[in-house]
Amino acid sequence: MGTCKLFLNLFLKLKIMSKVELLNQSRMTAMKEKKDIAKALFSTLKGEYENAVKSGSAEGDATIEKLAKKMTENAKIIGSSEALEEIELLKPFMPIMLSEFEVRSIVQTSVDSNPDKANNYKLGNKGAFTGIVMKQIAGKADSAMVNQIISEILK
Hints:
By secondary structure, the chain is mainly alpha-helical. Helices cover 77% and strands 0% of the residues.
């Protein structure tokens, strides 16, 4: 796990960098340090990012976060020791998750600005209101927590 700490320390020192800059720096560090797993992972992430941008995705942190999230989900499925190391290496590239307070605030704002959809949720048509909230959350909170908060607020 020394490799993971190396890259997390690098992230902490350079957290004013964008995630694109961090990816480039992490990749160069992995190459210099001859960390094969990290080098392969960061090279793959960089290649996926470049392909996504060529295909029309926006440049920047959001695309890196989306790719890192997808790669992390794949590594969790694999579950090997190498995959677990990859998960640790990808942590600095993941989206910053919203707190429960922030999710509650988004849900309450959505209730206030969409009273008809909120009432429909109470009547059993949950999809429209949940979709409004999830669009604002944009994958930055656990969906089970979001659904629980919606249920609590719209009792």
